[in-house]
Amino acid sequence: MRPEERAATPLLGRQRELSELGTAVGLGERPRPAAVVLGGDAGVGKTRLLGEVGSRASEQGWRVLVGHCLDLGDSALPLLPFTEILGRVDDEAREILAPVVAHHPGLARLLPAVRAMTAQQPAGPTDGRPGAAPPSVRGREGRDGRDEGAARAELVEALHAVLEVLGADRPLLLVVEDVHWADRSTRDLLSVLLARGFTAPVSVIVSYRADDLHRRHPLRRALAEWGRMPAVHRMHLGPLRDADVRALVHAVRPGLADQRAVDEIVRRAEGNAFFAEELVVARELGDDALPTDRADLLLVRLDRLPDDTRTVVRAAACVGRRVPHVLLAEVVALPDDELDEALRAAVEANILVPVPDAGYVFRHALLGEAVYDDLLPGERARVHAACARALRDGRVPGTAAELARHARAGQDPVTAVRASVQAGQDALGVGGPAEAAAHLLGALELLERPEVAAQAEVDRTTVVLQAVEALVTAGDAPRAVALLRQEVAVVDPSALTARADLLVALAQASLLLDEPGVSVLAATEEALDLLGEESTARRVRALVVHARALADRGRFEVATRAATAAHDLAGELGQDRLQTEAATVLGRLTSFLGEPEAAVEEMARVIDRLRPSGYAAGLVRALHQLGGILLEQGRFEEALGSYREAAELTRQHGRPWAPFGFDARLLAGIAAYVVGDWPEVDRLADVRDESPPAPLAALLGALALHTLAGRGDPSAPRALEALPLSTVHDGWAVVLATGPAIDILGDTGEVSQAVTAYDRAVATVTELWHVSSFAAQVRFGALLLGHLAGRAVAAVGQERAELVAVGERLLEDERAVARRRAELGRDDGPEGAAWTLRLRAEHLRLRWRADAAPPAPEELIGAWEEAHDAFDRLGHRFERARSATRLASVLAHAGPERAPRARELLAEARREAERLGALPLLAEIGALDGRTAPPPPTGGQGPRGRLEVELTPREREVLALVAAGRSNGEIGRQLFIATKTVSVHVSNILAKLGVSSRTEAAAVARERGLLG
Asked: Which has more pLDDT, 928 or 72?
């Protein structure tokens, strides 16, 4: 990664450490002397942290001086960081430094120019000339016959004096970095400065690499001494949290959308910011390994070790991140005492770190990777095979996952298959579906080889179904469907039950997606035909999925018969879990058949039955379905409670991306948005501490758009652009994102793009759902019409005609939705009814503002009264406030007798908008009540030398329409006033502005900002 790129990356995840360090050195308070010793591994972010503290100190008026120790081996100059520091002072504050140097002449020898001259002169005795070598690099005898100790004491005194003088001038922050490379003179000088302290506000920070401190490192003794000093504050900078590394990756490459790649970088970086940045670059270069130069840098430590230690470390790299001592002893051919000595050397070199469970780990995972990558293929295979034998024979305890990994790398595929299947089952049992899927898919890959399949004695269909369960639970239903389609195509036709199981699983997974070309009903019908009339749990499961498939196609009565048959058969077989699944489907079908209250009661009974059963997946599904029934009735608060419980249960059981639990989280966000709990929406959409699969991340991103749009957040357009809606093949994701997308685009003036977003959503969803129209179109149309109407005031000519034409098309779309609903025999719920009324009111408002067959005032007001009342009954707090604002707008133009009601509505809307922080709505309210645009001052000269004038609110409205090119008749119809009255207003405006034409009035108005 280029230095300029790294410098541009923000400091992430270090707020606590930044605050601690700033407080320790006295920032943000009365400056005082302080000392901090900061440790941390290479690349963990010490320099970035120190840079941020230095920037803050500079902003507060401090002088900041930084010196660096360098790894120059035996050729390092003593006191090099102080030469760097004094050179900076000589450049910036020579007037302060000069008197001190005059009083302490020996100090001049540390100035960079002097040291450079010294380096060019031959070695030999000196007599105090400016080019003389500093005491720390001379022999025992110094200037004037004094010994080295006296000369060094004088130098220490001189440096202390310089720092005191600088601190007295203004607070001083002195930073010495990388003291693990410091020479003895620098360490000794720092010890004196830290022990002696300062009277002036001088704060000292010393940093070092903790992972470079082997047991005999000379800095260890100094650190022990510094740690006993009461005035010294010790800090250790640990690894970043995974969420912060993830944020760092996205900051380095904002366009990186591959969540699996991000997660892999986070896993391998282990909290190290430098490694994370390097892994991002390595991925772009098409190589998962670290760049060669970085790997070589890590391997330098290995080269310094004894032969036996290198052998042990290489074996440890094959064993894995965690290295049990007993397993290492099995695979390394060394006597116990020699193995212990080799391990001791690896620990002292900070390559391996002992852990409490009688084992070791690499100091950093990438160090282990570098060692592993440096091995020859044969070396790796031999160590892995030895590990696999030790685990398989039971000589060493271990997990199935460990055995599978070693067996596969050790060329034992049969053992690898068996162990992978067991590892997958183990992972599913402890809530690790992603890990389970990886193990099971690995087993299926090996089973492709006929000789392995013949010896492994594993049923392939069983493994496939387990892999599908893991993938679906991990949130990767598309991959599960692809696997099932592949297996259905190749399964032996004579294996009837295997084919039936695969078809039922395919239908169940496909119901979670909008998969073109997948006939769910055909799959369940074929499965039932294959199973015949057998009374088995397999048939119950097929009937339950068949009922869901029928319901998905709107065939509710047939679906009810299938679900009832499943429920009854499950009862006969004593299959309680399957019976509750059937009961859940029946409860949902009851609501589809127009009996929502009965459906709520049925679902409540199912939930009561499930709570003590311990069947968490069934309870989550039932709570999710109850939430859907309540949501359709407009009972959002109750729905929110059901969804929250379902989502929390899923999280507690380690399956946050499982279908019904994740859907509950998403729908809880929608319910919270409607009831006005926007912080809860933000919490549910926040994935900074999580790694959702890419399709689910898009859904949560769409949820987050709702509050971004409502608040008018400046980041909303970027967040919208980051959602790949044009490539999403999930109808629900498109539906979820399109409403806020229309608002974001409309609020930023991109009305034509908002129209495009509507058209794209309609085309995508109708194709994916195989329908001619869908209910959410009404909501989209109402939102879009609101922005068309907002634009219509300023639009002229062809643009205004196009806005009206789009409005007519949206009205026709709403009628198509109503016709389809009637064909299905379904009633419009409270939410659907509210949006229908809103769309019709917005359409009338568009006609009014565009002066295209404008409605009569009473018709317009009546439509908006109905829309406002509908959202009031629904409890949709934001849309009620938005409807109140637009109702107030039409009332305000209908005559002075309507003004009190308009003011009342605006006050109501303002309170809600302020509570939510809805800035676009507040701006709309302000434009109506005049609070956002104070009246222009009276008197004074305007831009053209004319006197500024004060226009009445009505004159401002007329002027805005004049500037839009409207005729007096059009303005009268817009404002519900007579054409003659408009003419009077126009005459008054021309006189006040001192102009003679409407065109000039418009120009002056724009120039003076009167159209705000």
From this structure: 928
Annotate 673-708 with DSSP letters as a single string. HHHT-HHHHHHHH--TT----HHHHHHHHHHHHHHH
Of 1.25.60.10, 3.40.50.300, 3.10.560.10, 3.20.20.210, the CATH number of 3-238 is 3.40.50.300
Neighbours of 329 (CB within 10 A): 18
Residue found under tokens 């005035």: 231
Q: Give residue-wise pLDDT tens across range 375-424.
A: 999 999 999 999 999 999 999 998 999 999 999 999 999 999 999 999 99
Question: Which tokens in the block code for residue 169?
Answer: 């001038």
Contact 684, 668 (CB under 8 A): yes
Going by the DSSP 8-state scheme, the letter that residue 74 receives in this structure is G
| CATH class of the region 595-675 | mainly alpha
The Cα–Cα gap between 932 and 923 comes to: 7
CA distance 909 to 811: 27
Task: Judge contact between 728 and 713, C-beta under 8 A.
Answer: no
The overall average pLDDT reported for the chain is 86
CATH dotted code for 934-1012: 1.10.10.10
Whether the CB-CB separation of 385 and 411 falls below 8 Å is answered with: yes
The two tokens of residue 283 are 């991925």
Backbone angles phi, psi at 37, to 5 degrees: -115, 115
Can you tell me the distance from the alpha carbon of 245 to that of 269, in angstroms, rounded to the nearest whole number? 8
Rounded CA gap, 975 and 969, in Å? 10
Handedness of CA 891, 897, 902, 908 (dihedral sign): negative
SS (H, E, C) 202-219: EEEEEEEEHHHCCCCCCH
Task: Return the closest-CA partner of residue 443 out of 397, 387, 403.
Answer: 403
**Which string of b and e fits 764-794 if b means at least 16 CB within 10 Å?**
bbeebeeeebbbbbbbbbbbbbbbbbbbbbb
Q: Which residues of 555-572 are buried (b: 16+ CB within 10 A; e: fewer)?
A: ebeebbebbbbbbebbee
**Overall average pLDDT of the 502-531 stretch:** 87
Residue 296 contacts residue 342 (beta carbons within 8 Å): no
DSSP letters of 823-873?
A: HHT----HHHHHHHHHHHHHHHHHHHHHTSSPPPHHHHHHHHHHHHHHHHH
Residue spans of the domains in the chain: they are 3-238, 241-288, 595-675, 682-770, 934-1012
pLDDT of residue 97: 82
DSSP string computed for 265-304: HHHHHTT-HHHHHHHHHHHHTT-SSPPHHHHHHHHHHHHT
For 435-480, the pLDDT digits (tens) are 999 999 999 999 999 999 999 989 999 999 999 999 999 999 989 9
The CA distance from 827 to 258, in Å, is: 42
**φ, ψ of residue 172 in degrees (nearest 5):** -120, 130
Question: How far, in Å, CA of 118 to CA of 737, rounded?
Answer: 70
198 — pLDDT class (breaks 50, 70, 90): very high
